[in-house]
Structures are given as structure tokens and as C-alpha cells.
Amino acid sequence: MEISSKENTHFFSNNTVLPVDRSSFKSESSASKEKQSCCGGIKIFLGALSFVYFAKALSGSYLKSTITQIERRFDIPSSLVGVIDGSFEIGNLLIIILVSYFGAKLHRPRIIGAGCLIMSAGTFLIAMPQFFMGRYRYERFPSTINSTVSLSPCLQDKGQTPLSALEKSQAKINAGCEKEAGSSMWIYVLLGNLLRGIGETPIQPLGIAYIDDYAVEENAALYIGCVQTVAIIGPIFGFLLGSLCAKLYVDIGFVDLDGVAISPKDARWVGAWWLGYLIAGVISVLAGIPFWFLPKHLPKPESRKDSSTSSEHSKFIIEENKDQGTSSWQQAKLAEMAKDFLPSLKNLFGNPVYILYLCASIIQFNSLIGMVTYKPKYIEQQYGQTSSKTNFVIGLINIPAVAFGIFSGGLIMKRFGVGVLGAAKLSLGSSFFGYLLLLSLFALGCGNSEVAGLTVSYHGSKPMSDHEQALFSECNSGCSCSRNDWDPICGENGVTYVSACLAGCRASNGTGKNTVFFNCSCVGTSESPQSSSAVVGPCQKGNECPKMFLYFLVISVITSYTLSVGGTPGYILLLRCIKPHLKSFALGIYTLAIRVLAGIPAPVYFGVAIDTTCLKWGSKRCGGRGACRLYDSSALRYVYLGLTLVLGTVSIFFSVAVLWVLRKRSSPQDETLSANGERGACGTKSRKDNFVNSDQLIQSTYWPEKETRL
Q1: Is the pLDDT of residue 344 over 90?
Q2: CB neighbours of 289 closer than 8 A, spacing ≥ 6?
Q3: Among 209-213, 392-396, 410-414, where is mean pLDDT lowest?
Q4: Which of 359, 383, 372, 312 is nearest to 656 (CA)?
Q5: In this predicted structure, what is the pLDDT of residue 536?
Q6: 343-446+559-664 belongs to which homologous superfamily?
Q7: How far is CA 191 from CA 66, 127, 131, 185, 496, in A?
């Protein structure tokens, strides 16, 4: 149109056309320059925001990968680790309302930059206890330490050990108790994660709003989709970083590694968990630097300067030129908005589809967040895998499956023009088949490790019930052993013993990992009395475990993909079944409910349930219960998977209720029209209203903790 109009003026004008052409040329050149500066500025912001999303996703997933490391390092139960994990959500909730409201009126890029600094400070704070609480000490027999004194594990007579050696050992323990306050340093981990939550708060609302304000309208969905894609890549690197750090000993660089008597497969092993937090903190600092040099406002694209605002925009946002009016008018406007709050809340909660879907989401996220938080622990304890391998598998296999599932859900909706009723069916079907697949994992578990006195008796391999646990037997009755120690050895008979003393070993040779124990009265059997030696460390699980672990990985990946397919349709269902002017309010309530009722409590009560399956607790140096050393594999499987499935089943019932309400509201004609894109089941006007931009369904869909659907 512009070219044809210029051609007409050129043909129908005389000499006076030249000045007009020059001025129009100047205006076009200035407009093109403005467009270039606008595009350049928004792309710089897009790159910086993508890097921030990567940084926050990396640090968040790295925390998930270090759950078991933190538990062992600070000698705390799983329930307390759950509180630490939930502190991120608490920090986020503390200032989300203030940031969302006041942040939009201030310098948004600098607020995001400040948030990055706070986030990095919290990440550094998490790692700080490593440098103040001394070296990691685990239960171990003195002969596994480089020592010139040769001691018998089975102390038939305490006179075997020089009194001075015993006194020195006790003195060291008492001295260590003076520093045992370091065990309460998990509080700094909690506070650091709380700071992470506070620092992360402005990134999403202010960053996405900034892009939406200054990007060309048709490019906004693509830009937001790029940011969300990078947010999914972050957890992959987070778990891979967790895998790398878990291979390294916790005190690497501070102790002689040749003197470390435990291996990564030992329940006492703690990797260099702190190292990843230092790396993540540096990345967060670097990610925040560009925002301090970005402008408060960017020039708006020409296409958006004259466009009329949407109904939602005009209702809730006051333009700057109007803000310069009288304060009395503004107060009246604020009073009107406050007066509309309760009616809007009543309207929202009076929508049965919204309420039912909110309940379904809360319960489902309880299931998913709890499952994901303790998935590394489950794999380690159930299949005897190291923390390093577990994190590697989750990062390289599960998370890409989640990303592909999210993309597939959006692609299905775009390809087949799925309406609101179809979105509800797709979301329900995804959850149903996902949890059905999860049910099969009950059959893919490993049996308990054979541990004398805990899972099997000292004589033969008779399984023991809970009330029959007896660490002492005739074969070690002459030894002065402690029932609190956990320093496992593997006998030649394939049975693990809690300690060399409880195995009745009377001689040892070598130091560190190379220690070999001899003349172990509990290891020898009537069939092979000569098999009385043992080596440091627990025995490997049964031969069927590697095969079961492979099957578990296959089912887990398919389950992750299936559950993720329903995420996009469910989120679109949420958006399309509420009135347009209540959209932002509804999303805010939804996010708040998910964080408060799922993000915070789920890790805690999942941890409490998992603690009930512990067979052997570790002991702190100065007494008291430490971290769990051995779980009942069968009980852990039933508790972990059972709790996940029960919650998932309840959420499916709510999803069925959502579908029933939608079917009741829509007639057969409505369903036909919805498929053709003319009318939706929730009474929306047209397909254009239902699906503003098809690409946005694939690219920019977001819901809380999206990246944790593993």
C-alpha cells in the first residue's frame, strides 16, 4: 500500500513533490534507524535474559542433584532436607507481590540485575559451611587410617589397645565435639536457598513483561519461547555439573585422597557438593552484569505505538501521561481497583472449571515435585547407583524427554486445532497414561542388600522382620562393639556386615581402601569355615539389579515424556476458561497456590515418609542420630512410588470432573464449532480469542516448576 501511494503522488504531482519526497525520505530513514535501535536493544535484552534463565535453572537443578550430599554432610534426615528445598519457594513468596507491583514502575533491567546479585550471594552462602565446619569425618575403624598402631577390630580385651591411644582417641572426639556446632550449619544452606528465592523473584515477571512491551508484536511469542527453551537447557547442565562434582571427594584439595577409605558407592561418601555452588554463583554474577547497562525504556516499535490496547491492558495499566494527572483522580482509580478486588476474587472462585483445575494442578504438582526431589535418592538406594551416575542419567535422559514432551503438547494443539474440550481430554489422557506407566515401576525394584543383623540373620540368609533386628550374635559376643557405628565390610560369603567388629574380625592388614580383615568369626560358615576374610565397603547388590535399572530408565523416560505432553494443553485450558480481564489475576492465584500448597510442603512430607523406611541411622560424633545409612528397599519403593501414585490418582479424578463440567457446558454443536475454530467450550468468541498465536502455544507456555517434570 505504501509503495502504490508513493507512485501515485509521483505521477500526479509537479515540482513541489521534491521537498515532500525529501522529508518523507528523512522520516523513513529515521524510522528505520529507530527500528534498528529498538530491535538491537530488545535482542541484547533477550540474550541477557536467556542467560539469566539458564543461570537460575542451573543452580536450581544443581540443588536437586546435591540433596543426598547435603544430607550426609550435615548428618540430617530427609525431612529436614525437604525444608531446605522448600525454602526457595518461601523466599520467592516473601517479595513476589512487591516486586510484581513496584518493579514495573522502576528500572526493570537494574532490578533484574540486583536480583541476580542476590541470587549469587545466596548460592555462595550455601557453599560457605564447607570452609568453616572442618574436614568431613565418617565412622571408620582405626586400622583404616594411616597409623603405626595395629589394632584388632574385635576388642576381646581393651588391654590390647594402649591406654594412651584410647585416651588420645577420646580426647580427639571430645575436641571434635567443641566444633560439632558445625552440624547446625545446614541453617546457612537454608538461608542461602531462601536468598536464591528472593533474588530469582523479579526475573520472570519483569523480564517477560519487558520483552512484551518493547518487542514487535509478532515476535514477542518467539522471543519468550527462546527464553523458556534456554530455561529447559539449564537443568541439563545443572545435573551434569552435579554428576561431575559427586565424583570428587568433599575435601578434595585439603586432604590426601589416598587416605580416604570409602568409595562413591559407600553410603557415607560425600562429593564436592560445594564446588558446584561456587560455579553457579559465578555464573549468576556474570548473568546480572549486562542489566546494569540496559536502559529503563526502549523505543517502542512503530506497529505498537498506534495500536489500541487490549481490554486487560486498558483496565489494569495506567499510561504514563495519565499518571501525570491529578493525584485525586489516581486515588479514585486505585480505590476503584481495590473495590473490584473482592468481586473479581468471587468471580474467579465461582468458576467451577478454574477451581477444579486448580485443585487438580495442586495435587499433581505435590506428586511431581516430591517425586523429582527424591528421585536421585531413590535411584541410589533402590538400584545401588552412585550419586554421580544418577545425576548424569537424570540430566542427559530425563530432562530432554520432558522438553520434548512440552514441545509435542504444543505441536499437537497447533497441528490439529485442538479446542478447549480437546485440551482437557489431552491433559487428562496424558496424566492417566503417565501414572499408569509409573505403576509398572513397582515390579522393577531390587531386593534389600544382605546386611547381617538388619536384613538377614547371621546364620544363613533368613530374612529378618523389623522386630527381629539384632546386630549382636554368638559369633561376636566376645567383642566390645558399638551398635551405633556404620563402617560396613563385605565378607567373602557376599554378606555385608555393619562393622568389622560386629563381623568378629580379629586381625587386619593394610590401610585405607586396601584394608583386609581376617579371622572373622561371623563370616565363616559351616560349609566353608575358611572363608573368614572381608574387605572394606559394602557388598554389591544382586546380579539382577543392573537389568532392573535399565528397565527403570526406559519406563522413566517414557513416563516423563507422557506426563509432560499434557502440560501445555492444561495451561491453555486454564487461560481460556476465565474472563479476559481476570487472566492476570487468575494466573497469579494459580502460581501462588502451586508454590504455597505444593512447592513448600511436598518435599517435607515426602522426606518424612522416606525417613520411616530407614533401617540403620548413622551417629554423630558427639551422639545423636545422623543421616540414614541403609534403607529398606521394598518399603522405600512402596512409600516413594505409592505416595506419588496416590496423589496422581486424586488429581486425575479432579481432571475428570473438569472434563465433565466442560461437557455439561458445551453442546454437540459447540464441540463441532470448537474443532473448526469458531467457538470454544468455555463460551469464548472465536478461535482467535482462544488461541491468540499458535506459535505461542509451542514456544512460550510456562507453568511453575516446569523443568522438574522428570
Answers
A1: no
A2: 113
A3: 209-213
A4: 359
A5: 87
A6: MFS general substrate transporter like domains (1.20.1250.20)
A7: 16, 11, 16, 10, 39
Grid cell for residue 234? 539449564
pLDDT, tens only, 395-415: 998 889 988 888 888 888 888
Q: Side-chain half-sphere of 688: how many Cα atoms within 13 Å?
A: 0
Contact status, residue 61 vs residue 238, Cβ threshold 8 Å: yes
Query: How do beta strands 496-497 and 625-631 pair?
Result: unpaired
Residue with cell 543452580: 59
72: left (phi over 0), alpha (psi -120 to 50) or beta: alpha
Rounded distance between C-alpha atoms, residue 452 and residue 448, angstroms:
11
Backbone torsion region of residue 114, taken as left when φ is above 0, otherwise alpha when ψ lies between -120 and 50, otherwise beta? alpha
Q: CA nearest 173: which of 139, 133, 130?
A: 139
For the domain spanning 39-142+184-299, the CATH number is 1.20.1250.20
**Where do the DSSP E strands lie in 79-211?**
none
Cα–Cα distance between 161 and 151 in angstroms, integer? 7
What cell numbers appear for 214 in the block?
518493547
Which residue, among 302, 232, 315, has the nearest Cα to 700 in the 3D structure? 232
**Angstrom distance (rounded) from CA 489 to CA 451:** 10
Under the banding of pLDDT at 50, 70 and 90, the label for residue 472 is confident
Helices 352-373 and 583-594 sit at what angle, rounded to 10 degrees?
40
- Has residue 124 got a pLDDT over 90? yes
CB contact at 8 A, 530 and 512: no
What cell does 423 get? 485440551
Rounded (5°) CA angle 626-627-629: 120
552: left (phi over 0), alpha (psi -120 to 50) or beta: alpha
Query: Grid coordinates in use for 179?
Result: 566444633
Task: Report phi then psi at 666, rounded to 5.
Answer: -105, 140
Query: Which of 692, 659, 89, 588 is closest to 357 using CA atoms?
Result: 659
Q: Determine the number of helices (DSSP H) and then strands (DSSP E) in the chain.
A: 28, 7
Stretch(es) of the chain classified as CATH 1.20.1250.20: 39-142+184-299, 343-446+559-664
Residue 220, C-alpha cell as written in the block:
514477542
pLDDT tens digits along 125-166: 999 998 888 888 876 655 545 444 456 677 644 444 443 443
Q: Across the strands, what pairs with 578? A: none
3-state helix, strand, coil in the chain (%, to 5): 65, 5, 30
| Separation in Å, CA 237 to CA 253, 300, 392, 399, 472 | 24, 36, 10, 10, 47
DSSP string over 514-538: G-EEEEETTT--SS-TT---EEESP
Long-range CB pairs of 461-468 (<8 Å, 24+ gap) are 461/495
pTM: 0.79
- What is the per-residue pLDDT across 684-697, written as a single tens digit (0 to 9) for each? 443 444 433 434 43
Q: Which of 244, 241, 266, 248 is nearest to 63 (CA)?
A: 241
Which single residue is written with the C-alpha cell 500448597?
597
Arithmetic mean of pLDDT, 637-641: 95
Q: What secondary structure letter does DSSP report for 267? A: T
The pairing of strands 516-520 and 534-536 is antiparallel
The number of angstroms, rounded, from the C-alpha of 517 to the middle of its chain's C-alpha atoms is 43
Segment 313-333 shows an average pLDDT of: 46
- Residue 448 is given by DSSP the state P
pLDDT category of residue 304 using cuts at 50, 70 and 90: low
Q: What is the DSSP letter of 463?
A: B
Q: Quick one: cell of 219?
A: 515476535
Rounded Cα–Cα distance for residues 584 and 316 (Å) = 10
Q: Residue 148 and residue 146: Cα distance in Å, rounded?
A: 7
pLDDT band (50, 70, 90) for residue 178: very low
Angstrom distance (rounded) from CA 242 to CA 393: 11
Q: Which amino acid is at 574?
A: L
